[in-house]
Every structure is written in C-alpha cells, then in structure tokens.
Specification:
The complex is a heterodimer.
Chain A lengths: L1 H27 L4 H13 L2 H26 L7 H18 L6 H28 L3 H23 L30 H18 L1 H11 L1 H6 L4 H28 L10 H11 L4 H24 L5 H21 L4 H7 L3
Helix pairs in contact in A: 1-13, 2-3, 2-12, 3-7, 3-10, 3-11, 3-12, 4-5, 4-6, 4-10, 4-11, 5-6, 5-10, 7-8, 7-12, 8-10, 11-12, 12-13
Chain B lengths: L16 E12 L2 E12 L3 E5 L6 H8 L7 E6 L2 E3 L4 H6 L2 E4 L11 H5 L6 E2 L2 E2 L1 H14 L15 H14 L4 E5 L7 H16 L3 E6 L2 H7 L2 E6 L2 E7 L5 H9 L17 E11 L5 E11 L2 E6 L6 H8 L7 E6 L2 E2 L5 H7 L1 E4 L3 H5 L6 H6 L9 E2 L2 E2 L1 H14 L16 H13 L5 E5 L7 H16 L3 E5 L3 H7 L2 E6 L2 E7 L5 H8 L5 H4 L5
Parallel strand pairs in B: 3-10, 3-11, 6-9, 9-10, 15-22, 15-23, 18-21, 21-22
Antiparallel strand pairs in B: 1-2, 1-4, 4-5, 7-8, 11-12, 13-14, 13-16, 16-17, 19-20, 23-24
Helix pairs in contact in B: 8-17, 14-15
The chains are: A mainly alpha, B alpha/beta.
Chain lengths: 346, 525
C-alpha cells in the first residue's frame, strides 16, 4: 500500500513539474500561464458539451491505453498501437459500408473485424519476437508506418468515395455505435473503454492466465522456472494488445467519423501508450490518465480562440510529462536498474 | 584458520607492506560478509585472493577501495593508517580498481575514455592529441595493445579491460586491484593480461587480483589468500601450495555442521540419469556423460567447485536447458523431452541456485510467490479463476510452518532477508507434493539460524520418502546431509563417496580434477 502511495505521488509530482516547465515556456512566448491553464480547463470542462467533448477525446486514448497496459503487464512494449488503430478503423469502415447487415449485428461484426485486423497486424512483430527474440519495440514502431500508409493506399486507390476527399464511402447507419447524448457525438465507445479497463484489471488479478502473464512481465526467469511458457504468453499478450488497439480504431470509425479517412485519428495510439505509462501499467489508473490527456486535447481547441498561445503548447506539455515521468521512474528505480531498464528499454 | 589471529608476526612487518587490512568486518543485515579479516599485501607482489562465490572477496576489495565502509577494522596503506571514505580517497592514495563490469562510454574513443573526468586541457579545451599520445605511451610501456583513437563501442571485451587498466594507470595507481579479471577473457587474452601484471610488478607496483580459478592463481601469483564464508582461511606463498591443498582450503576442512542422524530407508529409484551431456550458454560442453540414480528417502549430494557443470545439470533436470545427449528418467518419464511445466507435473520440485532471479518475483507478495507452479490446481484455481482467499490462507499457514519472518502473506518478498526469501522458496517447493526434490545451494548467503532450519526441513523431506538431489559448493553441508556424495569436475562426475565417510582428502583431490579411477567408473552409476 505504501508502494502504491509512493507511485501515485511520484506521478503527480511528475505532472506538476511538467506543468511548471510548461508554464515557463508559455511565459517565454509572452502569454500568461494562468490564462492558458484556465482556458484549457474551461475548454475541457466548461459546460456539458465541453465535458462530453473531453470524454469523446478520452475514449480512443483510453482504449489504446488499455491495449498498452496489456502489453506492459506481460513485459511487452507495444509501440504499434497507432498502426493497429488505423487498420482496425479501416476494417470496421469496410464492414460498415460494404456488407449490409441488420442493426446491432452490423456494429458487432465491424468491431470484430477491427479486433481481428489489429491482432493480425501485431502478429507479425509478435511472431518475430517469440521465434527470433526480435526487439518488439523496434518492429512495432516500424509497423506503424506501414499500417498508416497501407490504409491511405486503401482509401485513396481502392475504396475512395467518388468525388470526395481521401475517404471511404460513409458507413451504413446500421453499423453506427449509438450516441449517448443528443448534444454530442459521445457514444458507447466510452462504455466499451471503461468495461475493458476494469475487465483487464480483473483478468490480471483474478485469473491464472493473468497471474502467469504478470509473472512473465515482472520476473521472466521465475515464470519460466515455474512452468509458464514465457514465449507463448509473450506472443498472446502482444496479440491481445494489438486486438484492443484495433478495437480502438473500430470504435473511432463507428462512433465518431462514420467513415474512414486518411489520417483519421492522429496520435491516439501514442497518447494511449503514454497514458498507460503514466498510470504505471494499471488499466484502472489509465482511465484517469486518459481523461487527463483527453481534457488537454479538447481544452486546446479553445486555446487558439481565446489566447495567443498555439495549441501546440499541448504537445509541448505532453512531451514534458513524458520526460518528467521517465526521469521520475529512473530516480525511483535506481536501486533496481534492471526493472527500470525493462520498462524503459528505448 | 591458519593466520586468523591478528598480528601474526611474519605478515605484519610494516614497512614493506603496500596494504594492510586488520580485523575487517562487514555485515549486511544478519549476514556477515567479512568476519574479522586480516590481509597484508607486500609491495611489489602479485597477491591472489581466492574463494568460492559469496566467500567475501569482492566485499573486501570494495571496502579497500572505499566503495563500502567496514563495520569494524582498520586499513593501512604503506604503513600509514587511513580512512577510505570513498573511492576518490583511494585513488589519491595510489589505489586503482578494475571492476568485473566495465564502465566505459561506447561512443567515445579509447583515449577519451581513459581520460574521462580528468581530461588534459589546453586553453580550456580538451587536448585530444596529448591524450592520445599519453595513452599510446602507457599502452606501449605495459604491453596493453590498444589503438587510442578507436571508438570503444567497436572493441572486444578483452580490449575494454585493457582500457579500464589504462584508466587506473593514468590516475596514478601504484596498487592495482582486479576483480575476477579473467572471467570475461579468452585463454590467450588471459595470458597477455598476466604478462601485463608481471610488468607492473617489475616496475615496483603491487597487484591484488580476485579469482576462483585455481590454475591461474597457481600460475601468476606470488602469494595467495584464501577466503571462505567471509573468513580468512590462510595467506601462503604460492610456491608452497599444491592445487588440491588450495581446493581444500577453499571449500573448507573444518566441518561446522554435524552429520544428521538418519535411518536408512532407501526405496525405489525415482531419478535415473544416464550418459547426460549438455552445453553451456557459450555452447561449449559443460556437463559430460553424467550417470547416477537417486532413490526415494535418499539425499544424493553433488560436490564441486562452482562452475564445473552443476548449474547445467540442475537446468537440464528442470527443463530449463536442453540436453545435448543422454536421458534422465523421473519415475519412468524422460525429462529431457519435457517442458518445465510438464516436468513439474511429473513430480519435480526445484529450489534454484539463483534464488533472486529464478526462485522468486521480488516485487510480488509472498502469496503470489507461493502460488507459482500450482496455479493450475484446485483449490488455488477453478475454471481458470484464482481463489485468492484460499491462496492467502495457505500462505499464512506456510509462513507459520516454515517460520518465515514476515508481517503477513501480502508482504513483498523483497522486504524479507535472504534466509527468509529462501524459506519462501522452500515452503513453495516442499509442499507441492513432488517426489523428487532438486535443491541447489540451499543455504548460500543465508545466516546460521536459517541454515539450521533449512537443513532440518531437508531431513524431514528425506524422512517423508522424497528423493533428493542436493547440489552444494559447501562440503560441510554435504557431509551433514548427504547419504552419498558425487564429485564433479569439468562437467564430469569424478567419483563417489559415502556421506558418513566423507573423506575430504579424496573429495578435494577429485574436486581439483585428480581422478580416483578405481571409484570413478563403477560407483558413479
């Protein structure tokens, strides 16, 4: 419990330091930090529409964050969530516009293909990791570029909406993820994300599979000694992580855009990974860190309207958070550098 | 315990001594790493410090170099008493240490690494040319062949070590400490290193090197100090020693454990190993043609200096390393074809030698550690769902039964002492119903009280009819517990002795690689 408190306070200090450094940078560009942060807060939580907008931004970050948590728990750094999200998003769109199905079933079928696409995409690096011990960080990062460009190719050359932008035809209304409120595009994807986060936490804690995976992640030699098949669990964990990454794309397509377009959800995969790291790999804590990043994203929309600061300041603050969280982890793990290196191996 | 009495006259005639340690004691919690060690190193000699893993060699040298502070004892350099608060004091006093793990910057050149932190400057800038010239001069003088302009990242480990030595020389060391310098070297590189060490001595410098290789100690050193279990056994001129004398001093002559009383209850053969071969991580043969049996109710000991194939034997038997040839039957099932999980199902319990890495997840709770290996079975899990309340209750019971000193089953294992961590491993492995117990170094780094408790537990398991293979580098431990002792050298089983007739003379000979041919062939089977 004391460890818990220390971890949480560490992350909060890290965020605090990042915001402080962000404030200095805001001062340097000649804007008032107080005004910028107040505007951010107002933009994120000012009224019910803004809150719904924040939750809408939170949804894909949360699902991607859960995907990252699953990988981290098994000692796998899935940096390819962005690519899995794109492929999942495209797969869901394809089912949505190409295969007419009854309402409900249509949505489920589209989500199922999104899941399959994400899993299939990560299966390549996962196989190389299990078979040849290839570093999954590098191979999943690289797979992002291929995935993003592949979906661009599909949208521009194979499934382009006649006369439209670089986008597929709109999906059929039968495949929509239903919206929760009338005043926002916020949809049931958020519920899917919350259920996934809580579900993942329960699986890790209460199933023997989750126990084995946790041991593979935190003490691989011990797990091997105890009879856990380390390579197979590593493979499965990456596959599952990729599947959830694909699902994030499906939710984004069916709930928000109702079509697939080039560059449709930039950075959600990476934000999810950062949210998961900030949450120390805990899916439940990722709900809150994802909300934090969602609020930053949504709040930044108002930033350029109301202040002279660019919304890029949000990217700067995010980068500062990554820096201070990794510095914090390095300080904390100094006595246990092996564990530190394992988690921060790039 | 030849010269454990402080101030034995021959060793303490001050003036000629480069280093004198007196009564050095260092404790880590309840574990005594160095226990009243006296060490005197004459100026201009190569002084080897030899001992098993965990004998306290590195601790002692870290104290001398200021990396650790002794709890008791004093240090004199060149006859003058000194407090070495940190390594900078040691370096100023003319000491230099080459560690086991090198600390070099791969992206910098050799010369830049050598002068890192004490760069030669001109007009405030680093004078690379001068650094290169100085490095070249030093490397020529001592036969340390390196190209000062090469980038370190491109070089082999052997050359990296030369750079570390150059670093020490540049900082003006007159007494050089090397921690297991040959562990990372090829035989050729080792020979070159020894030549360099001799050239140091020829210039009036002093060399202290740590080793557990008999051969090289016999080859290069002038004087040997043997450490065992944190105590000094003896300091002797190398010329007066023979190899098997050295072995016996390393593994100990005085038996500190009494032989445990036992009833003979030899039952059926549980483990049968036949013509077993295995390779080490470098793919060299490390286990050669081992054949033996273990019966139920029997403790078979494996003796040997560490690194003679015991680790590989344990790993093959537990499924963690493939056998390259031969078979091992556990109750009729061939282990060499099975995974670690199926070997456990077949009836193996394994107390691993590398306890902290293999034996536990240090960050997990005691409950979670005890669950390992039995998470597939009721009542611990049903239909894939864990029953944490049953797991926790079981852990609480085992904490009581095995006298594990912890606040509760939720305690993280890393909060426990070494002995209590080992008890967690034993509690898990001895209660999973296995017929064959593979126990590797059960009391390494464990305090005396816990050692007794662990030995008691092993004897209880024997009485319960388990077949036990006990691997230990401590002869006295084997003499206390084993019914039969097999001696390994260079991957082979050299011979066998009965436990109640543990003739240390004969065991020592076999551990040093002197075969006792009349035993080796018949009784090992």
């Amino acid at each position: 419990m004391k460890d818990h408190l220390r971890a949480v306070s560490g992350q909060i200090i890290a965020i605090g330091v990042a915001l402080l450094m962000g404030a200095i940078i805001i001062l340097m560009v000649g804007e008032s930090p107080v005004r910028v942060f107040m505007t951010l807060l107002r933009g994120a939580f000012g009224d019910q529409e803004k809150i719904a907008g924040t939750l809408l931004q939170t949804t894909p970050i949360l699902i991607c964050g859960v995907a990252a948590c699953i990988g981290l728990r098994g000692g796998m750094f899935n940096v390819g969530i962005e690519g899995q999200l794109f492929l999942g998003g495209f797969a869901a769109a394809w089912v949505g516009f190409a295969i007419p199905l009854p309402t409900g079933i249509h949505t489920l079928a589209a989500l199922a293909l999104a899941v399959a696409a994400g899993a299939a995409w990560v299966a390549i690096p996962a196989y190389f990791r299990a078979r040849y011990n290839t570093n999954e960080v590098v191979s999943t990062i690289l797979s992002n570029y291929v995935a993003v460009l592949l979906t661009s190719y599909f949208t521009i050359f194979l499934f382009k909406r006649p006369g439209g932008w670089s986008e597929t035809p709109p999906i059929l209304a039968t495949s929509y993820l239903p919206e929760i409120f009338t005043f926002s595009r916020l949809n049931w994807g958020l519920v899917i994300g919350l259920v996934l986060a809580v579900g993942a936490a329960l699986v890790f804690r209460y199933t023997k599979w989750g126990y084995g995976v946790t041991m593979v992640g935190s003490a691989p030699k011990f797990a091997e000694y105890g009879g856990v098949n380390v390579k197979r669990q590593g493979f499965l964990v990456l596959l599952l992580s990729g599947a959830v990454g694909g699902l994030a794309g499906g939710v984004e397509t069916l709930g928000v855009h109702h079509r697939f377009m080039e560059g449709f959800a930039p950075g959600f995969g990476f934000d999810g990974l950062i949210a998961a790291l900030l949450a120390n790999g805990s899916p439940v804590a990722t709900i809150f860190t994802a909300l934090f990043f969602g609020a930053l994203r949504n709040g930044s929309l108002l930033l350029e309207v109301d202040t002279s600061a660019s919304r890029e300041i949000i990217t700067v603050i995010q980068a500062l958070i990554i820096l201070s969280v990794s510095a914090q982890v390095l300080v904390r793990k100094r006595g246990d550098s092996q564990a530190g290196e394992r988690r921060w191996k790039f | 315990m030849l010269s454990n009495t402080p101030g034995s006259p021959t060793l303490h005639s001050t003036a000629a001594m480069a280093v004198e340690l007196t009564g050095i004691t260092k404790r880590f919690g309840a574990f005594v790493a160095n226990d009243g060690i006296d060490l005197a190193v004459r100026r201009g000699e190569i002084h080897a410090i030899i001992g098993e893993n965990g004998a306290g060699k590195t601790t002692l040298m870290n104290i001398l170099f200021g990396l650790l502070q002794p709890d008791e004892g004093s240090i004199r350099l060149n006859g003058e008493e000194i407090v070495i608060a940190d390594p900078s004091v040691a370096i100023k006093a003319g000491l230099g240490m080459v560690h086991q793990h090198f600390k070099l910057v791969p992206s910098l050149s050799v010369a830049d690494n050598v002068f890192l932190g004490m760069e030669i400057r001109r007009h405030g800038l680093i004078d690379h040319a001068a650094q290169v010239a100085r490095t070249r001069e030093l490397s020529k003088r001592f036969g340390l062949q390196v190209d000062p302009t090469e980038r370190v990242g491109l070089l082999s480990v052997g050359i990296e070590q030369r750079i570390e030595i150059l670093k020490v020389l540049v900082r003006g060391a007159r007494t050089i400490i090397l921690d297991e310098p040959t562990a990372v070297l090829t035989p050729q590189e080792s020979r070159e290193l020894f030549q360099t060490l001799r050239s140091f001595v020829a210039e009036g410098m002093t060399v202290i090197f740590i080793s557990h290789h008999l051969e090289e100690v016999m080859d290069v050193s002038d004087t040997v100090t043997v450490l065992r279990n944190g105590r000094k056994v003896a300091t002797r001129p190398t010329a007066e020693l023979s190899k098997d004398e050295l072995v016996r001093m390393m593994v100990g002559r005085e038996v500190s454990f009494d032989r445990r009383p036992r009833a003979s209850l030899h039952g059926d053969v549980v483990l049968e190993v036949k013509d077993l071969w295995a390779r080490d991580d470098r793919l060299l043969p490390a286990l050669r043609d081992a054949s033996f049996t273990v019966r139920s109710g029997e403790v078979v000991g494996i003796a040997g200096v560490a690194g003679n194939g015991q680790t590989e034997l344990a790993e093959v038997l537990s499924g963690l390393r493939p056998a390259s040839h031969g078979v091992a039957w556990l109750k009729g099932q061939n282990l060499t074809a099975l995974s670690p999980a199926t070997i456990r199902e077949a009836g193996l319990a394994h107390v691993p030698g590398d306890r902290m890495v293999r034996g536990v997840d240090r960050n997990a709770s005691i409950s979670a550690n005890i669950l390992m290996g039995r998470q597939h079975r009721a009542p611990w899990s049903r239909g894939g769902v864990l029953n944490w309340s049953a797991i926790g209750k079981n852990a609480e019971t085992l904490i009581k039964d095995f006298d594990i000193r912890a606040r509760g089953s939720g305690d993280a294992v890393k909060r426990l002492s070494g002995g209590n961590i080992q008890k967690v491993v034993l509690a898990r492995e001895f209660t999973n119903g296995a017929d064959f117990l593979l126990i590797d170094q059960p009391t390494r780094g464990v305090d005396i009280g816990a050692q007794e408790a662990i030995h008691d537990e092993i004897m209880r398991q024997r009485a319960a009819g388990r077949a036990i293979l006990l691997i230990s580098v401590q002869l006295d431990e084997l003499a206390a517990l084993a019914d039969r002792i097999l001696v390994m050298f260079n991957g082979r089983i050299m011979g066998e002795v009965a436990g109640d007739d543990a003739d240390e003379e004969r065991i020592g000979m076999m551990m040093a690689g002197v075969a006792a041919p009349e035993f080796a062939t018949e009784t090992a089977r």
